[in-house]
Design a protein that fits this description.
By secondary structure, this protein is an alpha+beta fold. The protein has 24 helices and 29 strands. InterPro entries: HATPase_C_sf, HATPase_dom, His_kinase_dom, HisK_dim/P_dom, HisK_dim/P_sf, PAS, PAS-like_dom_sf, Sensor_HK_Regulatory.
Length: 784
């Protein structure tokens, strides 16, 4: 019993252990299943989410035509309800069109039977949505046999992009065709090299330049346009462009059609596509550049010869050129200008040299001048007045390249001339208007241009009439009634036309009806105009008439005086001769011996007779000179001998007055043709005058010399001299000397007689005298 129980217990333990192990296994299996279920649920949810967010939706079409699709697909097809059968994909106002629906039905039917997949693009009715349908047979584990899976993609954006890309493709194709045509039609050689730098494309210009038959021949033979150069040839340039990733340009000479040309060859890297190139013929450009350089050199040489200063600034406002006058005006050294100073620095240098006008705010003034580079509407002109009085005319001209051209013209002389001209015009106007003469200026067409106040007043014209600048014919019609003889008015217009047209000066006299008389003249002016002058001679006409009457009376009186003086001279000589004869008899003792006092009286009588006789001779000489009957006995005169005789004749008189008489006769005085008596009398009169006016202890000089043309005789003294007024009256007839100089002076006929004798010989007599400095009398006698 115990053994049974023990076996039972063992069995029960084993069973219990098995039960426990089975329960553990079942528990573990349940936990694993639960974990698997959770993973399946997660995968399902993930798949659902992916299906919901997928750009493609799947619908199952069963063999009997039933349709199973998600709700989003219903919206994509634009259906109002969930379709049950394939035919429901088309409904009024939504879904697929009848044609698209029938086509899709046929495609799905074929797929269900043959398993052939298809792809179609449709558009939902009433919508812009584009749907791409892709059908294929459904797997048996997905659906029942004979079913099909319809994948629907929303291809709206993709279709738009496809359309855009198609349009872009067409545009690029057209552009490529246009570019190809442009390259082919380009007048310059163009080419393309592949990655191996071999020619793959050339245009017609390239073929023509290398004188090949066609492009294929050029590519086949790899004919290069450019010969090998120091840079390694065209391939080296293309390799440099490809390696550097930038275009490489070079100038190389080539021979085209037998002519040497200069080309600018440019190689353009195109990445993996190779290298493109083109060549531009710059032979004419190089020639133009050379001509431009020569032109610029000639222009700058010409600018250096100008008097105006010229400075040119580039677009970066640096000084690129300055001619010599500019450097001279602003005191700038050439070595400083070669550093291309900036515009502001040039202005500052001008200011340092004192060659800018004085301004209060120089920085602001400089900023204003900096705007010259960009000023619109052409150049700017200014006038600068420098501290030293220099006037500069400044012209600033912006250049098309952004630079600036400055011209400095020294207008100092022009300003001074303009000021002087303005002053002269004002003076001329004032003078013109205040002249005593009436003046009018007529133009070449006969119009009155200018007139003064007396011209207007003389004719009595209104200012309104003259302001219209009337023609001379209009003025003649106005003035004719004012003349004593109206027909004389035509003479004025004739004279104006003669002065303007024939350039002849003419004049005349005209009488007004009111008794006025005018002397007029028309004078041609250098500018082609005519000056018409009128001088009022009414007073002078009256004075002339009075003077003419008086002159006639004076001439009659002078004739009577001359005749009277001549007669009286002869009449006085007769009793004077008797007085002199009787006095000589008394002196000779014919009336008995005279007492000492009587002898003195007789000597005084004889001296007075001699002086009176001399005066009568002088008067006769004067009257003969006035009457033109003075006789000259001409012969060769030895002036040296004659001067010595004159000096000796007056030596006693000079000694009596204690005067030193000095005689200087130079051999050059020579001889002249004349009357020795009259010349001697003239010198004697000068000596007597000098001795009479010289105080005691004084000195009188008689000097004679000469030249080949004339002889000169000088009589000088160191007497009191005289002023200009006295000297002017010295040769007047019967002019008495100043009483303060003594009673012994001559009556005054000597010097007028001396002048008369000298002038009768064709000579002249002059005087130089100052008070307190003596007197110098000079006789000049011509040789012939």
């Amino acid at each position: 019993m115990i053994e049974l129980s023990l076996a039972t217990a063992v069995i029960a333990g084993v069973v219990l252990a098995a039960i426990i192990c089975g329960a553990g296994w079942a528990l573990l299996a349940g936990v694993a299943s639960q974990r698997t279920a959770k993973m399946i649920d997660v995968d399902r949810n993930t798949a659902h989410c992916l299906l919901e967010s997928s750009p493609a939706l799947a619908a199952i079409i069963r063999a009997d035509g039933r349709v199973e699709m998600p709700g989003r697909m219903v919206d994509w097809f634009g259906l109002s309800r969930m379709p049950r059968f394939l035919a429901d994909l088309s409904e009024p106002g939504g879904g697929l069109g009848e044609e698209d629906a029938a086509l899709i039905a046929r495609e799905i039917n074929a797929t269900q039977k043959s398993g052939r997949a298809f792809t179609r693009t449709v558009r939902a009715q009433g919508s812009d949505r584009v749907l791409m349908l892709r059908g294929q047979r459904a797997a048996d584990q997905v659906a029942s046999p004979g079913s099909a899976v319809l994948w629907v993609f929303d291809a709206t954006e993709a279709q738009a992009e496809i359309t855009r890309l198609g349009d872009e493709l067409h545009r690029m194709a057209r552009a490529y065709d246009a570019l190809t045509a442009l390259i082919e039609a380009a007048p310059m050689p163009m080419w393309h090299r592949d990655a191996d730098l071999k020619l793959t494309l050339v245009n017609t210009a390239y073929v023509s330049a290398v004188e090949a038959s066609d492009a294929e021949a050029v590519i086949t033979r790899q004919i290069e346009l450019v010969e090998r150069t120091d840079g390694g040839g065209p391939l080296a340039k293309a390799e440099a462009a490809r390696r550097g990733g930038l275009p490489v340009a070079s100038r190389v000479p080539v021979t085209i059609a037998g002519a040497r040309r200069m080309l600018q060859v440019t190689d353009v890297p195109l990445g993996p596509s190779g290298v493109a190139g083109f060549a531009v013929d710059i032979e004419d450009l190089e020639a133009a550049r050379a001509a431009l350089r020569r032109y610029l050199d000639a222009q700058r040489d010409m600018l250096d010869r100008l008097s105006a200063g010229v400075a040119q600034f580039s677009a970066d406002r640096a000084l690129v050129y300055a001619n010599q006058p500019f450097r001279r005006i602003f005191s700038m050294k050439p070595e400083w200008l070669t550093d291309r100073p900036a515009f502001d620095r040039v202005l500052e240098r001008m200011r340092e040299a004192g060659r800018l006008p004085e301004v209060r705010d120089f920085p602001h003034w400089k900023d204003d001048r900096r705007e010259w580079f960009t000023v619109p509407g052409g150049g700017i002109e200014e006038s600068w007045l420098l501290a030293d009085g220099t006037h500069l005319r400044v012209v600033a001209q912006p250049l098309p390249d952004g630079g600036l051209l400055l011209i400095f013209e020294d207008r100092t002389e022009q300003a001074q001339l303009s000021s002087a001209r303005d002053t002269l015009l004002r003076v001329r106007t004032a003078t013109f208007d205040n002249l005593f003469e009436a003046l009018g200026v007529f133009a070449a067409d006969g119009r009155l241009q200018m007139w003064n106040r007396r011209f207007r007043d003389a004719w009595g014209f209104e200012e309104e009439l003259l302001a219209r600048h009337p023609r001379v014919d209009t003025l003649v019609a106005e003035i004719a009634p004012r003349l004593a003889n109206p027909a004389r008015a035509r003479l004025i217009s004739d004279l104006v036309r003669s002065a303007t047209g024939e350039r002849k000066q003419r004049g005349g006299r005209i009488a007004f009806a009111d008794g006025r008389h005018f002397e007029f003249a028309a004078v041609p002016l250098p500018d082609g105009n005519a000056l018409f002058t009128m001088l009022d001679i009414s007073d002078s006409r009256r004075i002339e008439r009075a003077l003419r009457d008086r002159n006639e009376a004076l001439e009659t009186a002078d004739g009577l005086k001359t005749a009277f003086m001549s007669a009286m001279s002869y009449e006085l000589r007769t009793p004077l001769t008797s007085i002199g004869g009787f006095a000589e008899m008394l002196e000779g003792g014919y009336a008995g011996k005279l007492t000492k006092q009587a002898e003195d009286y007789v000597a005084a009588i004889l001296q007075s007779v001699e002086r009176l006789g001399q005066m009568i001779d002088d008067v006769l000489d004067l009257t003969q000179g006035d009457a033109g009957s003075l006789q000259l006995d001409r012969a060769q005169i030895d002036l040296a001998k004659l001067m010595s005789e004159c000096g000796d004749a007056h030596g006693e008189e000079a000694r009596a007055r204690r005067i030193d008489l000095v005689i200087e006769v130079d051999a050059s005085v020579g001889k002249i043709d004349g009357d020795a008596k009259r010349i001697g009398q003239a010198v004697a009169h000068l000596l007597r005058h000098a001795i009479a006016t010289t105080p005691p202890e004084g000195r009188v000089l008689l000097h004679a010399d000469g030249t080949a043309e004339q002889a000169r005789i000088i009589v000088s003294d160191d007497g009191p001299g005289m002023d200009e007024a006295e000297a002017a009256r010295l040769f007047d007839r019967f002019a008495r000397a100043d009483e303060a100089r003594g009673e012994d002076r001559a009556l005054g006929l000597g010097l007028p007689l001396a002048r008369q004798f000298v002038e009768a010989h064709g000579g002249r007599i002059g005087i130089e005298s100052e008070p307190g400095m003596g007197t110098l009398l000079t006789i000049l006698l011509p040789r012939a």
